[in-house]
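Below is a filled-in request sheet from our internal design queue. Each sheet records the structural input a requester submitted and the sequence that came back. We keep these sheets so that new team members can see what a complete request looks like end to end.

REQUESTER: design group, bay 2
PRIORITY: normal
MODE: inverse folding
CHAIN LENGTH: 106
BACKBONE (tokenized):
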């Protein structure tokens, strides 16, 4: 998992080729913290096909808003710099994230 912020988001996510998953999280978001080990496990499983990034929204609030992330948790998917899909709130769990990864890789 690559930690991204306002300094490197453009290079690591918006200029990246292929599929990129960004885990938007915050230190006060219990669901975010609970799903983090699952996202890290998926990163180990699919890291050769998908670039996994995490963005702590505290301190990067403007960047999160610019990506239309207004609540947490959000798992956003980008392809060749464009946001193509996302999972938010109650949809954020290991099964849904893995299903979405597989559908976007198909």
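RETURNED SEQUENCE:
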């Amino acid at each position: 998992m690559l930690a991204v912020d306002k300094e490197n988001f453009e290079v690591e996510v918006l200029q990246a080729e292929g599929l990129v998953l960004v885990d938007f999280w915050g230190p006060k978001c219990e669901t975010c913290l609970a799903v983090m080990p699952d996202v890290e496990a998926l990163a180990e499983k699919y890291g050769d096909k998908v670039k996994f990034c995490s963005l702590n929204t505290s301190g990067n609030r403007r960047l999160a808003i610019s990506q239309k992330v207004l609540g947490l948790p959000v798992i956003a998917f980008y392809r060749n710099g464009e946001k193509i899909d996302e999972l938010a709130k109650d949809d954020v769990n290991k099964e849904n994230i893995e299903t979405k990864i597989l559908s976007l890789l198909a």
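SHEET NOTES:
- The radius of gyration is 12 Å.
- The chain has one domain: 2-101.
FILED BY: M.R.
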